[in-house]
Amino acid sequence: MALTRDFKETVKERATREPAFAKAMLDEAATAFLNGEPHVARLILRDLVNASVGFEGLAAETNRPSKSLHRMLSEKGNPSMDNLAAIFGAVRKRLGVAFEAHAVEAA
Q: With bands split at pLDDT 50, 70 and 90, how would you rate the model's confidence at 1?
């Protein structure tokens, strides 16, 4: 019988162990959001929060209840732009990342 690992635990361990992977997750979440896929962005952010700052730490940094943050980053969550900016800002700060947006013309 093959041993299996929980996907979320694997992602968490890798993001903790490899800062470049965590930064790539943040980049992917931002890209998904900007490309009109907020549901994908929320799920990536949820995994990244679990791997980096944690929901209690995020609550302290954003002055929002951790339970509310859990709901915002759930599959059916609907965070406001202010809340989403606060979440991105806290994770970005924790990872030491700066955002830079570039426009690309559609083909």
A: low
